[in-house]
Amino acid sequence: MALESHNMKHQLHFLLVPYLCPGHLIPMVDIARLLVNHGAFVTFVTTPLNVKRIKPLIDTVNASKLRIRLIQFEIPVLEFGLPEGCESLELVPSRALIRSFMFALSKLQTPIEELIEATPISCILVDKFNYWMENVAKKFQIPRLIFDGTSCMNLLLLHNLFKSKVYENVQESKPIVVPNLPHRIELTKSQLPLELNPEAKDLRDLDEKIRTSQESAYGYVINSFEELELDYVKEYKKVKGNKVWCIGPVSLSYNNNETQHVGQRGNKSKVDLDSCLKFLDSWPPKSVVYVCLGSLNNLALAQFQELALALESCNFPFIWVMKEDDLLDSEFEERTKERGLIIHGWAPQVLLLSHNAIGVFLTHCGWNSTLEAICAGLPMITWPMFADQFFNEKLIVQILCIGEELGNEIAIPLGKQENYGASIKREKIVEAIEKVIGDGAKKEERRESVRKLAELAKKSMEVGGSSYLNMKMLLDHMETLTFGKPSTQ
Ligand code: UDP
Fold first, then answer.
1. Rounded distance, CA 101 to CA 422, Å?
2. What is the pTM of this model?
């Protein structure tokens, strides 16, 4: 696309460099959509496999606006001992190869530098995991904003933990109170995110690079809305000298006549949408359990079977999204076919969550899934596994009171699941489902709380809402930085 044909004078040009995994790539695409809707140009850099995943959605924007330039560069996966096509974290075959994946990805630095030499860029928006972009921003003296794919609460917790070091010299099962927070948040050392988790020491040097490159960034773009976590937004702004812009939930960047586009978000769906909707239409409102543990998790076999037994014995209808190669007991699908729909592979999650028949989302508390549940007004059953997910569980269950926890006690780093067996028992899962969509005492209260949050989320993205205004402020700020004053448009 010939961006040069537009008048580039006083037109902000963002370079977006996402991390390569669905939970980070998807919201970056949504942010690209938001930026162009607010009048900026976007150059979006990723690899061939990811281009395939997101191009249909980008094409729908460009059909009307011609403002997102999608650029693909290869990464040398074979050179780093990775299988061909291994261009997304969930495809990395073992934990030992995550390091190689990160290094292969860092080879994007040279082509990105060549790209910037040919096209003037006003601002870089980069995922926190692409720490090597710090060098690029410095070399060309371009302001670098970080997208971390998480909440202000998580960023503040991490900041306070890291500064206070309260987790040092503490037994792994002993609760730690995170200091200087608006609420009393207790976690055990074994529930801490990877950067601080004793089970994930093998990537500590990379964590350190990521952390220091974040410190020197110009500011933060957050997929959250202020009304959701106001106290944490205020505190985190203090930490970052105000350069924090909450512009989400970005999954709400689609309007009502874009249902088809929402169905294409992130990847090509592995299920026929009509048959899914037919299944959901056949159930009463708020009766179906939607189970999806994110794009990265692979449950230990014993845990996977325990979840299957729970869904079989709970008597509620369910949709269970599992990995393409997950193997179920061959008779399970047969025994539950009257009330169970299994999706092997990618599901159009946001679209399904918006159906009135879904009553609860059993989630791993990934930040995108958490926000998507809130936007759909759905209470959650929380099963955090690693990274920020235990913090998100605190927000869902303790602060917002919109979820029921399964009580997972240990963060299991990616690729180590098989070591942990079935720590969450089927009775616990059935009990939680009963509480949320059966006869639970707090059922209505919980539902009302999340319904109100869904309204606030929607308002925040509408013209004049907090996230809408934050996006405008971000662009004004960047225009002043780039051109000396904001444009009047
Ligand atoms: N997702 C989806 N279909 C799937 C699995 C995941 O659309 O079958 C999307 C989901 O809607 C969310 C993202 O993938 O936007 C997952 O991000 P999240 O932060 O929830 O978890 P992660 O996968 O990064 O652990």
1. 29
2. 0.95
